[in-house]
Design goal:
CATH superfamily: SGNH hydrolase
Structural class: alpha/beta
Radius of gyration: 18 Å
Shape: globular
Distance between the termini: 23 Å
Strand order of the largest sheet: 2-1-4-6-9
Largest sheet: 5 strands, parallel
Number of helices: 9
CATH architecture: 3-Layer(aba) Sandwich
Strand content: 5-15%
Number of domains: 1
CATH topology: Rossmann fold
Amino acid sequence: MRRGLWGILAGAGLAACLAGCGAGGDGNAPADGADVQESGAAQTPADSMQDGTEPAAETEQMQEREQEPAENGMQGLGLSVVGDSISTYEGWIPEGFNGFYPENGELTDASQLWWQRLLKDTGMELCANNSSAGSTCAGDSDKEDIQSGCSSFRLSYTVGKQGRLPDIIIVYMGTNDLLESVPIGDNDGTALVEEGEIDNFSDAYCMMLDKLESEYPIARIYCCTLTQVGDWGTERPYEPMENSLGMTAKDYSERIRLIADTRGLPVIDLYDCGIEIDNLTEMTSDGVHLTPDGMKCVEEAALAVLESTAGE
């Protein structure tokens, strides 16, 4: 049984949230090309944009993408990302969401993000970047909480501008569950999950997938395992990071793979994408957040899986 108890009420779930959660001005599309809405007009997450325009360098890069169409069956498809700090960049996340780059870390341009590279190499178009720094999968699924991946409110930001639905959704979350020592749990992708406070990673991850599959039944969903995460070492720069439960990125990655395999969803293996404990000084700025080299490894792993599954 793949669906949780949440699925019983899925018909009205995110649709109701989309209709009513725009009052705060939060948005989910990048600042580029944002439509200016009339004062007092009702807004949804898909319509309410961050104020701003694309930097000139990024505009040129977007033009280059249009001049170099990819021939891989993905040209023009809409991509949505559900992620955390590793997928954020100022101006490319919903208004009110938490960003990481470029104020922190070593990225200096949004084009260095893994999913921006993926757009360029596939010809896909960004539908929505539903990413917020510090967010976990676990949390209260009933609350309007952007920091809980299993929250219907948070997941409503997966839809694009003017209600565009994604063709492909890449879920790259779980690193903060590791860092915050959220128990992994024992859900293999089949156990029922009730709405409310979800206090373990596997239940929250399953509920998140339940909601995405229900609200976006045509979209192909890909699940990313976690990159290797390091803690400051003594005899070498980094050692494998263990949380207070004794768990590592490998443990959470194995659970993600189990859940995805149970549901028949393709897995993007980032744990073995070339980012290793011994090269974290080049691949990350702090053992967690990726440098441009680390972003390239993630994008290459994602591209390989998308190309191998195109047309399935």
